Amino acid sequence: MELTLKIPGDVVETLRFPPDEVEWELRKELALALYQRGVLSSAKACVLLGITRWEFEDVLRQRQIRRHYTEKNLEEDIGYARSHQ
Questions:
Q1: N or C terminus: which one in the chain shows less Cβ crowding within 10 Å?
Q2: Nearest-CA neighbor of 22 among 1, 37, 3, 7?
Q3: Under 8 Å CB-to-CB from 32, ≥6 apart: which residues?
Q4: What value, to the nearest 5°, has the Cα angle with vertex 58 and ends 53 and 63?
Q5: Half-sphere exposure (CA, 13 Å, Cβ side) for 77?
Q6: CB 10 within 8 A of CB 16
Q7: What is the DSSP letter of 16?
Q8: Torsion-angle region of residue 52: left (phi > 0), alpha (psi -120 to 50) or beta?
Q9: pLDDT score at 80
Q10: Would you say 48 and 56 are in contact if contact means Cβ atoms under 8 Å apart?
Q11: How far apart are CA 83 and CA 41, in angstroms?
Q12: CA distance 75 to 64
């Protein structure tokens, strides 16, 4: 399933992101918020953002977000690594 989210233009303008960075910034905010809530694993956040695990780690460091890691996260990360060899 794929989801398209419509955001009114005046709301997008309020964000003051450069036009070519709006989608990236909104995806990043969504991924980080869901990761912090424990809804999204780091592996799935990487898929949502289209970045590597190491790039995601950098984003977490920049935002000073604590990394949480469960056995389920480990299993997902192993699956992600195997599928991207």
A1: N
A2: 7
A3: 45, 59, 60, 63, 65
A4: 125
A5: 13
A6: no
A7: T
A8: beta
A9: 86
A10: no
A11: 16
A12: 25
- The phi-psi region of residue 4 (left if phi > 0; otherwise alpha if psi is between -120 and 50; otherwise beta) is beta
- In this prediction, residue 35 carries a pLDDT of 95
**CA-CA distance, 43 to 83, in Å (whole number)?**
12
Chunked into runs of 10 residues, the chain (85 residues) has average pLDDT values of 92 92 96 95 94 95 88 85 87
Q: Are 44 and 27 in contact (CB under 8 A)?
A: no
Say what the pLDDT of residue 73 is.
74
